[in-house]
UniProtKB/TrEMBL annotation:
Superkingdom: Bacteria
GO MF entries: metal ion binding; succinyl-diaminopimelate desuccinylase activity
Cofactor annotation: Zn(2+); Co(2+)
Record Pfam families: M20_dimer, Peptidase_M20
Similarity section: Belongs to the peptidase M20A family.
Protein keywords: Cobalt, Hydrolase, Metal-binding, Zinc
Span of domain Peptidase M20 dimerisation: 191-321
Species the sequence originates in: Paenibacillus graminis
Protein name (Swiss-Prot/TrEMBL): Probable succinyl-diaminopimelate desuccinylase
Catalysis: reaction(s): N-succinyl-(2S,6S)-2,6-diaminopimelate + H2O = (2S,6S)-2,6-diaminopimelate + succinate
This protein's pathway: Amino-acid biosynthesis; L-lysine biosynthesis via DAP pathway; LL-2,6-diaminopimelate from (S)-tetrahydrodipicolinate (succinylase route): step 3/3
C-alpha cells in the first residue's frame, strides 16, 4: 500500500526549486489593485495547472477581473462527499514610491533566504504553495476520496467585492471546508477575525476669508476635529463576549504578547473597538475658511459587539460634540467571526503543521478582517495559513522566508490528504 504522505512530502522536497520558481513568476506580474487587472497572471496560472492535467473555469466579474475555479476530482472508486477549497488572491497593494524600495518590487528574486517583492507575503508565496500542492497531487495521481477545488480571485485588497463573495453568492464553487493562504505565523494559523465597521461623516461649515478666521466663518475642519476627538471614545464600548470565544481570545492575547511586535500593548485590541481616522478631506484653499470636511473611519469590532451598535454610538458621540451629520457605513461591514477548533479542517491543518515542523502549533484570532468571513457566511468552515515576514506586509521591501514557503506547501498538501482522505487501495 502506498504511503502517500511520505511520497508527497518527499516530492515537495525534491521539487523545491520548481515551487520557488513558481512563486517568483507570480511576483513578476505587477497585479496591483487598484487599478486591478488579473488577465495576465490568470492566464499564467491556468497554463501551469493545465500542464498538471487540471482544467480551469473562468468567471469574469468584470472584463479585467477574472475568478478562476480549478478542480481536482476524486480519484477514489467510492468518493466521499467532502470537498476542500484552497483559496488565494492574485491582487497586491500598489508598490508605492519606488525610490523607497531597496530592490525592484516585482523582481521575485531570492536573496539571503528571502523571496523578495510586492506580494511575497501577501499573498503570492502562499498562492504559489496552493497551486503547486494541487498540481503535485494531480501529477502523482493521489486517489483523494473527495474533490479538491482551487479558487483564485482577483480582488481582495480593495474590499474583495469582485472576488470571494462574488463567486460564493453565485454558487460557482462549493465546499465543506476551506483553507486561505493569507499570511500567518508559521505555527499559528488564524481561525477567526474581528468584525469591521467602516464609516464616514461630513461636516458642513460657513466659508469666509482666511484672514478673518476664527471670528468670521465657521470652519468645517475645526468642527470635524472635535468629532474626531469624540470618536476616540468608541474604544470604551464594553463587549459582551460570548463564553464560547473567551478562551480563544485569551490564547490569542497571550500569543500576541509573546510573539508580535508591540505585543505588550497590541493584545488589548482583541476585546476593544479600535478607531483609525483613515482620511480627512476638507477645504478648498488655504486662505478660505473650509465649508465642508469629510472624515473616513476604520473601526474594528470585537466579539460581543455588533457593528451596527458601533454606528449608533458614533452618531451619539458626534451629536454630543455638537455635530449633526449623517454617519454612513461603507466598505467592510460585519461582525467578528471564527471557526471552532473542533472543526476537522482546523485540527487537520494544525496537525499537519506539527508533523511538518516538529513543533507545537495552535490557532489564534486575527485583529484584521479577511475573505474568511464570506466563507463563514456560507457555512463553510475556514482558516488561514501562509508564509510571511509579517512586518513587511503592505510595506516597502516586502519579503517572505523561503523555508516558510516550502513548509506551507507541505502543510497544504498534507491537509488535503488528511481532510479528504486517500483511498486505501491506491497504489
Amino acid at each position: 500500500m502506498t504511503d502517500w504522505k511520505s511520497k508527497v512530502l518527499s516530492a515537495i522536497d525534491a521539487e523545491q526549486e520548481r515551487l520557488l520558481e513558481l512563486c517568483s513568476q507570480l511576483i513578476r506580474f505587477p497585479s496591483e489593485n487598484p487599478p486591478g487587472d488579473s488577465r495576465d497572471i490568470s492566464s499564467f496560472i491556468m497554463e501551469y495547472l493545465k500542464q498538471s492535467g487540471i482544467d480551469t473555469e473562468v468567471h469574469p466579474a468584470t472584463e479585467t477581473m477574472l475568478n478562476l475555479v480549478s478542480t481536482l476530482k476524486s480519484g477514489a472508486a467510492e468518493p466521499s462527499d467532502k470537498k476542500l477549497i484552497f483559496c488565494g488572491h492574485t491582487d497586491v497593494v500598489p508598490a508605492g514610491d519606488l525610490s523607497r524600495w531597496d530592490f525592484d518590487p516585482f523582481c521575485g528574486d531570492i536573496v539571503d533566504g528571502y523571496m523578495l517583492g510586492r506580494g511575497a507575503s501577501d499573498m503570492k508565496a502562499g498562492l504559489a504553495g496552493l497551486i503547486f500542492a494541487m498540481g503535485l497531487l494531480s501529477r502523482l495521481g493521489v486517489p483523494l476520496r473527495g474533490d479538491l477545488a482551487l479558487l483564485v480571485v482577483p480582488d481582495e485588497e480593495t474590499g474583495g467585492h469582485l472576488g470571494v463573495p462574488w463567486v460564493l453568492e453565485r454558487g460557482l464553487v462549493t465546499g465543506t471546508a476551506a483553507v486561505i493562504a493569507e499570511p500567518s505565523g508559521p505555527l499559528n494559523p488564524t481561525i477567526g477575525q474581528k468584525g469591521s465597521c467602516w464609516f464616514e461623516f461630513t461636516v458642513e461649515g460657513t466659508p469666509g476669508h482666511g484672514s478673518l478666521a476664527p471670528v468670521v466663518g465657521d470652519s468645517a475642519i475645526v468642527k470635524a476635529a472635535k468629532g474626531i476627538e469624540a470618536l476616540q471614545r468608541l474604544w470604551d464600548i464594553k463587549p459582551d463576549i460570548p463564553e464560547e470565544v473567551q478562551e480563544i481570545i485569551r490564547i490569542s492575547q497571550d500569543y500576541v504578547k509573546e510573539r508580535e511586535q508591540d505585543g505588550s500593548i497590541a493584545y488589548q485590541v482583541f476585546d476593544h473597538v479600535t478607531v483609525n481616522i483613515g482620511t480627512i478631506q476638507g477645504g478648498t484653499k488655504v486662505n478660505v475658511v473650509a465649508d465642508r470636511c469629510t472624515v473616513q473611519v476604520d473601526s474594528r469590532v470585537p466579539f460581543g459587539v455588533d457593528y451596527r451598535d458601533v454606528l449608533d454610538r458614533a452618531r451619539s458621540l458626534l451629536l454630543e460634540a455638537g455635530i449633526e451629520s449623517e454617519v454612513k457605513g461603507f466598505g467592510f461591514q460585519g461582525n467578528a467571526n471564527w471557526t471552532s477548533t473542533e472543526e476537522p479542517i482546523v485540527s487537520n491543518l494544525v496537525e499537519s503543521i506539527c508533523e511538518v515542523s516538529g513543533e507545537e502549533a495552535y490557532g489564534v484570532l486575527q485583529w484584521a478582517s479577511s475573505d474568511a468571513r464570506h466563507f463563514r457566511t456560507h457555512q463553510i468552515p475556514v482558516l488561514q495559513y501562509g508564509p510571511a515576514e509579517l512586518s513587511t506586509i503592505h510595506n516597502f521591501n516586502e519579503k517572505a522566508p523561503v523555508w516558510q514557503i516550502i513548509q506551507c506547501a507541505k502543510v497544504y498538501a498534507l491537509t488535503a490528504l488528511k481532510y479528504l482522505g486517500v483511498e486505501e487501495s491506491g497504489k
